[in-house]
Amino acid sequence: MNEERRGPGLDFIRAIVEEDIRTNKWDGRVVTRFPPEPNGYLHIGHAKAISVDFGIAQEYGGVCHLRMDDTNPSTEEEEYVESITEDVRWLGYDWGEHLYYASDYFEQMYAWAVQLIKAEKAYVCDLSADEFRDYRGTVTQPGKESPYRNRSVEENLELFERMRAGEFDDGARTLRAKIDMASPNMLLRDPVMYRILKASHHRSGDKWCIYPTYDWAHGLEDSIEKVTHSLCSLEFEVHRPLYDWFLDQLGVYHPQQIEFARLNLTYTVLSKRKLIALVEEGHVHGWDDPRMPTISGLRRRGFTPESIRDFCRRIGLAKADGVNEVGQLEHCLREDLNKRAPRVMAVLRPLRVVIENYPEDLVEEMDAVNNPEDPGAGTRKVPFSRVLYIEQEDFMEDPPKKFYRLAPGREVRLRYGYFITCKDVVKDDDGNVVELRCTYDPETRGGDNPPDGRKVKATLHWVSAAHALEAEVRLYDHLFTKENPMVLEEGDDWRNYLNPNSLEVLGSCWVEPSLAGAVPGTQYQFERLGYFCVDPVSTPDRLVFNRTVTLRDTWARIQKQHRSK
Ligand code: ATP
Ligand code: MG
Fold first, then answer.
1. By C-alpha distance, which of 336, 326, 290, 279 is closest to 520?
2. Residues with catalytic annotation?
3. Helices 78-90 + 44-59 axis angle, to 10
4. I want to staple 307 with a disulfide (CB 3.0 to 4.6 A). Which of 131, 333, 367, 460 is the partner?
5. Nearest Cα residue to atom 29 of ligand 1
6. Which pLDDT tens digit goes with each residue over 223-246?
7. Is the domain of 378 the same as that of 456?
8. Residues of the domain holding 291
9. Residue 6 within any structural domain of the chain
10. What is the Å distance from ligand 2's center to 262 Cα?
């Protein structure tokens, strides 16, 4: 059985699936589907749906279809189809031969619509969009029946055929289901099944000028594919009566729709409309900007598929919507990267250190451990020489009490290097510290304690100035300053909470020479600084890294405090 099988116990969907298998409800079959509309890039919320749809199929020996729900030509594009397949595959899921397109079913859907017209369950309506709204009523008031509701079957068939033939303008007519204009569920008030839309479709071209609505199409797609469990997020709960109604009226194969809570994440937005706005209004640099909650953004940032799957497993499946903490997602990432990311040394904001008693032309190759969590990862050589860079923030001229790092007269350890003592401070004309003059103790090679047992309180990372490679490093913070930018006061705009400091670019950082030729997409731990990933634009001449996440795990700390209470 799959190790990712269960979070904290059997959730309600798996309980249903197991019961169905026990009672042989679907002849033992488990068929699910992930049905994205190709009108945007997938995000972390979709990752949850994907892990549910594909995960459950996998665990119970079933199959999961990847279906492009491409019923709206005006917003859909091939680019999105490509990104969706790439992202699902990257997350580690496989649909085998089961890649489907709703647009391939348009002919069958049309035939079923004709069947409903013949059964007097559907009619062509000439109300304009405004009139349609007036007739629909409100949550508290029933709607009014359309004056076109009782057209004859013959007239409906003729008009519907002419709609398809392109004889009418966009929006001039619709095909509607004849259900109940007084239903307390507004969605059942004679919902639209087809609208006229003279737009080219990314697959069917200009073959069609009428397009099915989600509610009409979705159950039919599931039925055609003989899906058993149609799993979707909670906003579709109110649509379920309609899903059932269409399939019942047609008398065709009828899957069971089951809803689960949507994923919401703190400090971000997850609706496609808002994500599109972020890209189109230039608040971020594209769909795969490392600040985006898209799968492609997370990938570029340095997230691993394993960490995202682990997160989806841990948050579990509930029936009520909630908000999950981005800190928990980052915690899963740190756990994963801690095991696999090689450690290296890099200096983001360099401060020059000259070791006065170290020979001018000497270079020593120091042994450094690649990953203390993984003994098999071995060691590497790091060059040490007379001129080094350390981090500016590791030195203070006038240190407060608890600052144990470098200061005038103070001794610290350079990791894998030597103990050094700061003797003098060199400043520029403006009084900024630009260089430290230090001495080293030859008895502390490798960073070992000296024979006299002398101790230091701090260990710093460093690089050799003559050997280090210059790099650009991009630091990220949350895209929003507000914990839940989706919940706003009336009249407020989510854009007001965009974090102006979500990106900081450091143009001249230095990394140890072992990173020459670092391959885009590879993660490293820069000692003491966090996990970093090589950006796709990185070249051997110009290394570019994204900070994936810092080393500070606030989620783990909060969990620990929580447990000890
Ligand atoms: P929108 O943001 O406009 O509502 P969407 O993300 O729901 O769009 P789809 O492409 O239709 O767009 O979603 C595909 C599937 O992913 C659906 O079955 C939906 O239930 C699921 N899904 C979408 N967002 C989330 C989310 N935040 N959490 C869990 N599942 C989601
Ligand atoms: Mg949706």
1. 290
2. 37, 262, 272
3. 60
4. 333
5. 262
6. 999 999 999 999 999 999 999 999
7. yes
8. 272-342+471-564
9. no
10. 10
Confidence of residue 565 (pLDDT cuts 50, 70, 90): low
Burial pattern 163-187, b for ≥16 Cβ within 10 A else e, equals bbeeebeeeebbbbbbbebebeeee
Q: What residues form DSSP beta bridges with 33?
A: 65
Instruction: Report which ligand 1 atom has the smallest distance to the Cα of 233.
Output: 20
Quote the mean pLDDT of the chain: 95
The 10s digit of each residue's pLDDT in 11-60 is 999 999 999 999 999 999 999 999 999 999 999 999 999 999 999 999 99
Domain membership flag for residue 1: no
Q: Is the pLDDT of residue 8 over 80?
A: no
Ligand nearest to the CA of 276: 1
Q: Is the CB of 43 under 6 A from ligand 1?
A: no
Band (292; pLDDT cuts 50, 70, 90): very high
Domain with residue 66: its CATH number is 3.40.50.620
Is 46 near ligand 1, meaning CB less than 6 Å away? yes
Q: Decide if 530 contacts 550 (C-beta within 8 A).
A: yes
Residue 272 CA to ligand 2 centre (angstroms): 8
State if residue 37 touches ligand 1 by the CB under 6 angstroms criterion: yes
- Please count the structural domains in the chain: 3
Q: Is the pLDDT of residue 6 over 80?
A: no
Q: Which of 260, 282, 314 is the last residue of a domain?
A: 260
Using the atom order of ligand 1, give the atom closest to the CA of residue 36. 10
Alpha helices in 234-379 (DSSP H): 240-250, 272-280, 295-301, 305-315, 326-340
Q: Which atom from ligand 1 is nearest to the alpha carbon of 39?
A: 10
Going from the Cα of 127 to the center of ligand 2, the distance in angstroms, rounded, reads 27
